[in-house]
Write a structure and sequence with these properties.
40% of the residues lie in helices and 20% in strands. The protein has helices at 11-22, 54-63, 79-84, 86-106, 140-158, 190-200, 225-242, 262-272, 297-303, 311-329; strands spanning 2-6, 26-31, 46-48, 67-72, 111-117, 124-129, 162-168, 170-172, 204-207, 219-220, 222-224, 249-254, 260-261, 279-282, 292-294. The structure holds nicotinamide-adenine-dinucleotide (NAD).
Length: 331
């Protein structure tokens, strides 16, 4: 089996690539390195370029006619940046992605796994959200992901494209073998900010303490990136039984089913980390929401998937990667 991974030099895509290689599934990586890293594609079949480059995508599929499935991880993903540059986000995450689908379909590649996001859901801190829960994307980033889900769903109903949209909750951790991890130490996610606070010996800022959650801080569902990668193994193996001509589209949550507030994450972090962090309370950040956590029963039913790594594993692997990152990436 062979899989094309667009965005395969980024955080999630490169982890998925490692998981496939471990299973003897062949991979081809396409990435323009806008945020991805050449180091993450080293030793892997790699095409540098844009998903919107029709000639390139066509050439890849001519050179690898045995590609069975395409994974679309390529996207711009920074929520605050998306408020400042909405056009760029819609162009990249919608227009270029549509061009990519066109190129795939023109070359006869009709199996797609799309990386969607839990940020498309309405906040629901009281109950786990399943795939039928109301959508209410707030940021241009989240809206671009929602728009593309709708686009591929509509296209799949017109045939012959079949699509699995995986709605990732909050990926943390790194490849347990430390081949890849988060490429940037400047991430705005809570765990990245905690690691930065630890290494710079500064206070960790809790952004917003007046949400309607059990302790007033935002709630998230932190899922180990390796568990997300594992779901992609089952998805390619079971693809034809999950989506068919009669049922060409499925959206599937990938989360742990457990909500963790920022304060709870600080508490866990301080248990795992060699150096405890201290916190300071600040106002809410633009575009942030109280959050949500997943119901992942559908992933269990369709893929036999359950997360196996814990929140502690995710924090520990993020800390290990943060120590090794500079050595591997050199900056
Ligand atoms: N990391 C998260 O917190 C998170 C959460 C939910 C969903 N997702 C989704 O998962 C996917 C992967 O996210 P990530 O965290 O790995 O981000 P990332 O920035 O690490 O990876 C994205 C990759 O896509 C590449 N890329 C972007 N635009 C491209 C284009 N036009 N042509 C070719 N390559 C392009 C980048 O260079 C990068 O390597 C995204 O679709 C994102 O929306 C991520």
């Amino acid at each position: 089996m062979k899989v094309l991974i667009a965005g395969g030099a980024g955080y999630v895509g490169s982890t998925i690539a490692s998981a496939y290689l471990d299973e003897d599934i062949e991979i081809v990586v396409l990435d323009n390195l806008v945020t991805g890293r050449r180091e993450f594609a080293k030793g892997r079949t790699f095409y540098e370029g844009d998903i919107a480059n029709r000639g390139l995508v066509t050439r890849i599929l001519e050179e690898h006619p045995d590609i069975d499935v395409a994974i679309l991880c390529a996207a711009l993903i920074n929520v605050s940046e998306s408020y400042a540059r909405p056009k760029d986000y819609y162009r990249n995450n919608v227009v270029k992605c549509l061009g990519f689908i066109d190129s795939l379909m023109a070359s006869g590649c009709t199996r797609l796994i799309f990386s969607s996001s839990a940020s498309i859901y309405r906040s629901s801190e009281m109950a786990a959200v399943d795939e039928r829960a109301p959508l209410e994307p707030t940021s241009p980033y989240a809206r671009s992901k929602t728009a593309f889900e709708w686009i591929v769903e509509d296209i799949s109903h017109a045939g012959p494209l079949r699509v699995i949209s995986f709605r990732f909750f909050n990926p943390i951790g790194a490849d347990p073998q430390m081949r890849t991890g988060l490429q940037s130490s400047e991430t705005s996610h809570a765990l990245g900010a905690m690691i930065r606070a630890m290494t710079t010996e500064t206070d960790f800022a809790i952004m917003g303490t007046d949400y309607a959650t059990r302790d007033g801080t935002g709630i998230r569902d932190y899922v180990h990136v390796w568990d997300i990668a594992r779901a992609h193994i089952s998805a390619v193996q079971l693809f034809d039984s999950i989506v068919s001509v009669d049922n060409p589209y499925e959206a599937i949550n990938l989360g742990t089913g457990r909500g963790t507030t920022v304060r709870e994450l600080v508490h866990k972090f301080n248990k795992v980390s060699p150096l405890p962090i201290h916190t300071v309370n600040l106002a809410r950040r633009d575009g942030d929401s109280a959050g949500a956590f997943s119901n992942f029963e559908k992933a269990t039913r369709l893929l036999g998937w359950t997360p196996i790594l814990s929140l502690e594993d995710g924090i520990r692997d993020s800390l290990r990667w943060a120590q090794m990152r500079r050595g591997i990436l050199g900056d």
